[in-house]
Amino acid sequence: MFRLLPTFALLTLALCSNRIFGAEPADHPRISWSGDWLTVRGGLLGGQELRIHYLEAYCRPHSTNRRWEQTVIPHRARILETDPAGARLVIEDTLADGVVVRHQIVAGKDEVDFQVVAHNPTTRPSDAHWAQPCIRVGPFAGFSDRSGDAYLPKCFIFLQGELVRLPTSHWATTALYTPGQVWCPNGISRDDVNPRPLSDQVPDNGLIGCFRADDQAIVATAWEPYQELFQGVAACIHSDFRVGGLAPGQTKNIHGKIYIVPADVDAILARYHHDFPEHVIHSE
Predict the structure, then answer these.
(1) Strand boundaries in the chain, DSSP class E
(2) 50-87 burial, b if ≥16 CB within 10 A, otherwise e?
(3) What percent of the chain has pLDDT over 90?
(4) What's the pTM?
(5) Which of 30, 208, 210, 223 lies at a CB distance of 3.0 to 4.6 Å from 86, suitable for a disulfide?
(6) What is the DSSP secondary structure assignment for residue 17, as one 8-state letter?
(7) Which of 194, 204, 200 is nearest to 164 (CA)?
């Protein structure tokens, strides 16, 4: 599922504080949350707000060919802690089956970090299998949230060792719901992803991103573990995180990032591999 971490990427990571972060914007990203929407402001967003439907949905397995309302597990969210400076907040989701998910979200100088703890306090197994943070990148890319496919050429994934802008080759067009595009990594059942057109191409890694309108900055996201990469219908990109179900009393930890960085592809790859070592295949 993932390619080798090249030596040049490690060197890039070691040098990035001098090469990139020296050009750090005057203000760091700041975060706020209300009504299931996480908003990021500042940094390299170019005066735009980055809005994330957080969380859009928790999902059951066997979702690929089933109607969406049968897949979604209802949940309610509340904010537990917030920082007036916009640097940190804590959200708690309670799912209809009793699962409790705590999200600690911290804004760094060029990223937003997510530490998620999912716990099943009940005596029944939970079908919470995966979840959707929906990042609305339209305004960042120079388009509206309802721009159709116009924003696609600003978005990218990695295939066969290369950054590939959307739409990719082998673009799927048929599914229970259209349009959109899903990329399923190795190790994940193709029966358990979004019911949108499913590509036959397997992504190299769990990173999906979007270039700013002037191509000088990138918003990108990754999660561990992750269920799918997804390009949606509301000028959005997803790295949807995996829960994998929860036995009675079970707790699982999940980690995510949104990067808001200069458009240096080698540097963002090195950063991603450093932050998600689970996604790197190490040579003998």
Answers:
(1) 30-34, 37-41, 50-59, 72-73, 75-82, 88-95, 100-107, 111-119, 130-136, 155-159, 162-165, 181-183, 208-211, 217-224, 226-231, 236-242, 251-262
(2) bbbbbbbbbbbbebbeeeeeebbbebeeeeeebeeebe
(3) 85
(4) 0.89
(5) 30
(6) H
(7) 204
DSSP letter at 184?
P
- The CATH class that applies to domain 7-276 reads mainly beta
150-153, long-range: CB < 8 A, 24+ apart: 151/210, 151/235, 152/231
CA atoms of 232 and 138, how far apart (whole Å):
11
Amino acid occupying residue 65:
N
- Find the mean pLDDT for residues 97-104: 98
* 269 HSE (CA, 13 A, CB side): 23
Residue 148: the pLDDT is 85
Structure tokens of 75?
Answer: 């949940």
CA gap 100, 240 in Å, rounded: 18
Structure tokens at 251: 């707790």
How far apart are alpha carbons 115 and 95 in whole angstroms?
18
The confidence score (pLDDT) of residue 146 equals 79
Instruction: Please identify which residue in the block is written with the tokens 């190490």.
Output: 282
